[in-house]
Amino acid sequence: MVSTRSRTSSGTSPAAELPQKRAAAADASKRPAKKATTPKAAASDLAVGKPVTKEVTLRNQEEKEVAIADTFRGQGVVFFMYPRANTPGCTKQACGFRDNIQAIKDAGFTVYGLSGDSPKTLSNWKDKQNLPFDLLSDPEHELISYFGSSLPGKKVQRSHIVVLKGGVVGDIAAKVSPADSVNRAVKFVKENSEAEAPKDEEPAKEEEPTDAEKFAEGNTVSFDAELQTDASVAVKVQDLFKTRGAILFMYPKADTPGCTTQACGYNDNLEAINAAGFDVYGLGADSPAELLAWKESQKYKYTLLSDPKHQLIGYFGSSINDGTRVERSHVIILPGGKVGQIEHNISPQDSVSKGLEFAKSHAIGAASKL
């Protein structure tokens, strides 16, 4: 015979728990609900018309400390940011500010370069390019980030900020080309000049056009500098067209298929071009040694010019990709320096045919001695 046992619960029965749960829920509903909190990201307050509030001290190329707040106490400041010292585009930007430094100072402003490079790197670059202003080292992107120019991976976006005397932001330019950065900044400081007005009223002088505006068909070449030939001989640009016309053709890189087609085309037509009173010059960023090797392998009978810093190439408007590449193009200059023809983004064959056609239709005299 199987016996059965009755089971008793030592805890509270479900029926008894139900009123307690309802009471707890009712009590909880009377308490105010907690508001969800979202952490706010710290945002830069930098904007045109507002003062610079960032207080930071950086080192310049001489390892000397520069307090940013001190830079614009008695003058305006142009801070230009660049990806990396001693690279083509950054050198073009820095040298542009160098070449316009007097106009900037006359307007009551000064210039500071700003990047993540070390003071030693900046010192070498400053000496090499003869830059007449301080370069600030900001490896942690303290000021670069505040200016909105810091990119992922500690990269720097090419840009510039103009701060008026006293610290109010006057202009912000981001994602600018080297040339546009310089031109825009110079234009701004001239329009916001703090220099004393002349005592005697004089007729307003027309603003000096930029190099890009000066270089155009019908205008005279104003650029003057020395370049190295394929034989490592220095030659003045102005001497190329003193008494004869000159065809200067630009190409991306020596000893590459398209560039060789272009160069050989001019070589094959050199006699006809010379007879018309024009000389031919190849213009690239390659070194004199590279140009000489290319010249000897193809037996070119004209001079190749080395322009690694894109000085003349940039003036001609053929420096692209932030100064890292040369656009295939050509420029024809008449004796004395007047620009006769400008052709950009042209094929090797079209460059040769158009250059030859122009020379024949503007025939002017005997052969070159260079």
TrEMBL record:
GO terms for cellular component: cytoplasm; nucleus. Residues 1-46, 192-213 are annotated as: Disordered. Its main location: nucleus. It comes from the Eukaryota. It catalyses: a hydroperoxide + [thioredoxin]-dithiol = an alcohol + [thioredoxin]-disulfide + H2O. PANTHER family: PEROXIREDOXIN DOT5 (PTHR42801:SF23), THIOREDOXIN-DEPENDENT PEROXIDE REDUCTASE (PTHR42801). It is found in: Nucleus. The keyword Nucleus applies. One of its GO terms (molecular function) is thioredoxin peroxidase activity. GO terms for biological process: cell redox homeostasis; cellular response to oxidative stress. This is thioredoxin-dependent peroxiredoxin. Belongs to the peroxiredoxin family. BCP/PrxQ subfamily. Keywords: Antioxidant, Disulfide bond, Nucleus, Oxidoreductase, Peroxidase, Redox-active center. Residues 192-202 have a biased composition (Basic and acidic residues). Monomer. The keyword Chloroplast does not apply.
